């Protein structure tokens, strides 16, 4: 299975048309069709449903698309790593991030590096711990920032020197907005939205057995998507303080949980990982802005 053919496959999947994909790849349509057919024969599976004017992925094709995207990201990453070995004039650092205001430390490190190395590019992927950890394991990411204690058997880590504070985002006219803080009992009458990771790892630490009685109407991985649902009146959302502005000029209000619930953030990378020069620069700069010693 060739990298070039996987690129052909992905372009065809994105375009939904052999003709348009061939034009974008600067090859003839018969050449592209032949390469895709040979890939299907190699895998022993049909990858596309073919219509008169369009194509669509089969179930097997959708599986390959996800794998191919990761494989090509790794291939591109390897090329960038070798281009940056001799002299650091640029390069790409790939980072996975949870949604948290504590990402400000990463932002400060990126800003500082851009002053000296303006050609370095930063590819940042947002997601929960399982999503970014999978990409870290697959070699797609150089490092990740997660809001769950890391697996010390697999990762080295650095602890962010602050904590996220949990609370409830709600419309300003919600009765809970009249309270200075919110208890688990306060939440029981309301439709609640929260990430699956939080319901598994965080909220039970605070709500105990009553957590199972919450009326959870939706789960989300990206908090800002959940807050759109709050604005539209679907329910109230559990999340970290500071994800969005909640001033008098906005439609949302934030109230902390009682008793207080906090979560730590960690920067992680695989054990025995050899950083590229540009990733090493970022790792050192992150330590510096956090006030940790730098080797």
From TrEMBL:
InterPro entries: HTH-type_LysR_regulators, LysR_HTH_N, LysR_subst-bd, WH-like_DNA-bd_sf, WH_DNA-bd_sf. Belongs to the LysR transcriptional regulatory family. One of its GO terms (molecular function) is DNA binding. Signal peptide: none annotated. This is DNA-binding transcriptional regulator, LysR family. PANTHER family: HTH-TYPE TRANSCRIPTIONAL REGULATOR YBHD, NITROGEN ASSIMILATION TRANSCRIPTIONAL ACTIVATOR-RELATED. Keywords: DNA-binding, Transcription, Transcription regulation. Residues 1-58 form the HTH lysR-type domain. Pfam families: HTH_1 (PF00126), LysR_substrate (PF03466). GO terms for cellular component: cytosol.
């Amino acid at each position: 299975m060739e990298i070039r053919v996987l690129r052909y496959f992905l372009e065809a999947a994105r375009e939904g048309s052999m003709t348009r994909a061939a034009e974008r790849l600067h090859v003839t349509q018969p050449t592209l069709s032949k390469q895709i057919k040979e890939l299907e024969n190699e895998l022993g599976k049909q990858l596309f449903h073919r219509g008169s004017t369009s194509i669509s992925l089969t179930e097997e094709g959708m599986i390959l698309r996800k794998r191919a995207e990761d494989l090509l990201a790794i291939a591109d990453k390897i090329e960038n790593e070798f281009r940056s070995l001799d002299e650091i004039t640029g390069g790409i650092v790939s980072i996975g991030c949870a949604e948290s205001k504590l990402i400000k430390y990463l932002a400060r490190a990126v800003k500082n590096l851009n002053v000296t190395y303006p050609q370095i590019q930063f590819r940042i992927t947002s997601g929960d711990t399982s999503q970014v950890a999978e990409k870290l394991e697959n070699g797609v990411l150089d490092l990740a920032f997660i809001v769950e204690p890391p697996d010390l058997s697999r990762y080295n880590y650095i602890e962010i020197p602050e904590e996220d504070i949990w609370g409830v985002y709600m419309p300003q006219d919600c009765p809970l907005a009249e309270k200075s803080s919110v208890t688990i009992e306060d939440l029981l009458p309301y439709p609640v939205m929260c990430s699956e990771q939080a319901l598994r790892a965080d909220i039970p630490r605070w709500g105990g057995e009553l957590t199972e009685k919450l009326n959870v109407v939706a789960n989300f991985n990206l908090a800002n998507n959940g807050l759109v649902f709050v604005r539209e009146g679907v329910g109230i959302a559990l999340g970290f303080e500071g994800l969005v502005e909640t001033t008098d000029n906005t439609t949302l209000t934030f109230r902390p949980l009682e008793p207080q619930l906090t979560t730590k953030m960690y920067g992680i990378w695989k054990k025995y990982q050899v950083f590229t020069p540009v990733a090493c620069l970022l790792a050192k700069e992150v330590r510096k802005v956090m006030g940790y010693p730098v080797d």
